[in-house]
Design brief:
By secondary structure, chain A is of the alpha/beta class. Chain A has 18 helices and 14 strands. Chain A has three domains: 67-227, Rossmann fold; 231-304, no CATH class; 308-387, Arc Repressor Mutant, subunit A. In chain A, strand 13 and strand 14 form a beta hairpin. Chain A starts with a helix and ends in a 5-residue tail after the last helix. The longest helix of chain B has 31 residues, at 15-45. In chain B, 26% of the residues are buried. Classes of the chains: A alpha/beta, B alpha+beta. Chain A binds chain B through residues 175-180, 210, 213-214, 319, 322-323, 338-340, 386-390, 392, and chain B through 45-48, 171, 193, 195-197, 199-202, 205-207, 233-234, 244, 247-248, 252, 255.
């Protein structure tokens, strides 16, 4: 007996597929992206090609991070401070836009000028006022545990004038009682000593937004600079330069020297990567094969990312991702406190996200108990959370 | 003369004309279904703009039906003036007698579409009912309450009643959390904990200010009335945020040995010691 309903459904699905072909069949699953670097294909690549995808700046190759406006902002601010302006600086931008590189370039310039500096990379969440003072005291070479706020400001003011670079600001973000006291303490120290020391802070964009929205952090810092995302042409140029650096001068039978045009095969990849270098690397790796000629590559058109796993997440999991993106990382204990659930429930939530390939667990060298957004897809996930109104 | 008009009337509705009318109505209906599907798809794709997207449908629907009916009358039927007057007279009388309330609701629906008092997605209080507006039809408005009930309110009634709109087209809205606490708690500490606890809640929209106020009240005994006003990230999390903030404040007070919860066991306390309600 013919099942009319089933027949109609099949006919509809067939017609739908013909007229509106599902993108999911062609899309790259989210977990495939996150596991790509463990695949046999990636491991089989020769070392020279792998070097093109090095997760960091390659000397003077990455012209984008040497964009004059970013470097000039720091140089000009520093110059103003040297001429007696009472100021402090902050730079912020999305992951992978060259924040750390910019700090390194500035530090390099300081070294060339024989300017004293202290690089303070926060490695744990600061819990209270005393913790802030002790952490800064240790970094500045003062004795820990002996100062109260006023004494510490006095001691800091008596030290020789220098540049203090504070990185990993995400460790200041916390949704716990007493978080305001931590910010207030750091703010008091910066405001009281910024005439004597040049304070430079670096933060990821979501962290910076949270600090500003939650604690009015922008009031503490006089000069702020947003590092813009890579534009399509910047991304295209960066990828081409990296291939050339790795020794591959021909892509799709076109010399890399002549690839700097809108019709370049890498242009599509540059557009899809939305300013995220890691995503650009993934698209390149996922679509390339060695060419027939020596030192040549073939790059196929890039595919879309299947956001299915994100769409299936529940409210708490989406909030978890939002909080991880602002906190930089979350431990099971921190998650349990923030979401007011048991540690087992927190562990389950975070592990589920890890299994889906959205978050990474700390390795044996770092805290295994912590989870952070997988770098390669963090830009995609953050954009999704903003569009879903879980991040702002 | 009456017979003449009747003959003209019958002649107007040939099989072809009737088929055209039915066809126009079906096409209009299909277009509306398509628009609704497109809006729903867009809402799923960009939930952040769901209120703005949803508010367009009631207006589009009225315009489309108006256009379709105008086309049927002017383009398909093309009646002589005498038939139009006779039909309008009969129709007006019929509508006036048989469907006073329905006509009122319909007119109210059109007025609400032209000059909206709230939009689909807003959290509103209509009479005793508080909930999210899930549909703005021509004659009725549907609310989805926090008890998961669907309340249907005739549009004519909505025009008569005062309406409290909590978010007025935005996704975030202010939520007030009221707590009655013993006077033994130092006020400065209480306010500090209240503000900190509100910031700890992941439902709170930190882009907008959080305010905590404390008033002494007397009802059999003296109490502090703590009111925390904060914005919720999304109107749908309103109750979740209110509960979360209240629980965090109570837990923080207990952790600081400022409150042992005995107030809730005291029969002389106000009837509703933990009152959580949206700010409206």
């Amino acid at each position: 007996m013919i099942n009319i309903k089933q027949s109609i459904t099949e006919l509809w699905l067939e017609t739908k597929q013909r007229w509106f072909p599902s993108k999911e069949n062609n899309a790259v699953p989210l977990d495939q992206i996150s596991r790509f670097y463990q695949t046999d294909f990636y491991q089989s690549l020769d070392e020279s090609l792998k070097s093109a995808f090095y997760d960091g700046p390659l000397g003077g190759l990455d012209s984008r991070v040497l964009a004059r406006k970013d470097v000039d902002f720091l140089s000009q601010s520093f110059s103003l401070w040297q001429h007696g302006r009472n100021l402090s600086c902050a730079i912020y931008g999305e992951k992978g836009t060259g924040l750390s590189t910019l700090l390194n370039i500035f530090i390099h310039q300081l070294k060339q000028q024989n300017q004293a500096y202290k690089l303070l990379t926060l490695e744990k969440r600061l819990t209270d006022e005393q913790d802030v003072i002790d952490t800064l005291a240790k970094a500045m070479g003062l004795t820990e545990g002996t100062y109260k706020l006023d004494d510490f400001i006095q001691a800091l003011s008596e030290l020789p004038s220098c540049v203090i670079v504070l990185d990993n600001l995400h460790f200041l973000v916390q949704r716990t009682l007493g978080a305001q006291a931590v910010i207030d303490c750091l703010g008091a120290i910066i405001l009281a000593t910024r005439g004597h020391h040049f304070w430079l802070l670096g933060a990821e964009e979501q962290t910076w937004r949270r600090l500003c929205y939650g604690y009015r952090f922008e009031n503490l810092i006089s000069h702020q600079h947003h590092i813009a995302n890579f534009t399509d042409s910047e991304m295209r140029d960066l990828l081409i330069k990296r291939f050339a650096y790795a020794g591959f001068h021909t892509i799709n039978d076109i010399a890399t020297d002549t690839l700097h045009s809108e019709k370049s095969p890498i242009n599509d990849i540059a557009k899809r990567s939305k300013g995220c270098v890691e995503l650009g690397f993934f698209y390149c790796l996922n679509n390339l094969t060695y060419g027939t000629k020596p030192q040549s590559l073939l790059i196929m058109p890039a595919q879309e990312i299947d956001m299915g796993p994100l769409k299936k997440l529940n409210k708490i999991e989406l909030f978890t991702l939002a909080e991880i993106s602002t906190h930089g990382q979350l431990s099971v204990k921190e998650h349990a406190g923030l979401f007011r659930m048991s540690t087992n429930e927190s562990k389950m939530t975070l592990e589920h996200l890890r299994v889906l390939g959205i978050v990474d667990q700390g390795d044996e060298f770092h805290n295994r108990d912590t989870y952070s957004l997988k770098l390669i897809i963090s830009a995609v996930v953050i954009r999704y959370l903003i569009s879903m109104n879980y991040l702002y | 003369m009456d017979k003449n008009i009747y003959q003209q009337f019958v002649e107007l509705f040939s099989y072809t004309t009737l088929a055209s009318i039915v066809g126009t109505l079906i096409i209009t209906w299909l277009i509306l279904v398509g628009i609704r599907w497109a809006i729903n798809t867009l809402v799923n794709y960009k939930p952040k703009y769901r209120i703005q997207l949803a508010q367009t449908f009631p207006v589009i629907r009225i315009l489309l039906w108006f256009a379709a009916i105008s086309y049927i009358v002017i383009g398909i039927i093309q009646p002589p003036q005498s038939v139009i007057y006779a039909s309008l007279g009969s129709l007006g009388l019929a509508i006036g007698l048989a469907s006073q309330d329905a006509a009122k609701n319909l007119v109210a629906g059109i007025m609400m579409a032209v000059s909206p008092r709230f939009k689909v997605g807003d959290m509103v209080k209509v009479g005793e009912h508080y909930g999210e507006v899930i549909s703005l039809d021509l004659s009725t408005t549907k609310l989805h309450t926090f008890d998961d009930d669907i309340i249907t309110v005739p549009n004519a009634d909505i025009l008569k009643m005062p309406i409290s709109n909590s978010n007025n087209g935005e996704l975030n809205e202010m939520v007030a959390v009221d707590l009655h606490l013993p006077v033994s708690i130092p006020i400065a500490k209480l306010k500090s904990i209240a503000l900190d606890a509100a910031k700890c809640s992941y439902y709170v929209y930190l882009k907008k200010p959080i305010v905590a106020t404390v008033f002494p009240i007397f009802q059999d005994d003296f109490y502090y009335h703590l009111k925390i006003k904060a914005y919720v990230l999304d109107v749908r999390f309103e109750k979740s945020m209110a509960t979360d903030v209240a629980e965090r404040v109570i837990e923080a007070l207990q952790e600081n040995d400022l409150f042992d919860g005995s107030l809730f066991a005291n029969t002389q306390t106000p009837k509703d010691p933990l009152e959580i309600r949206p700010s409206i």
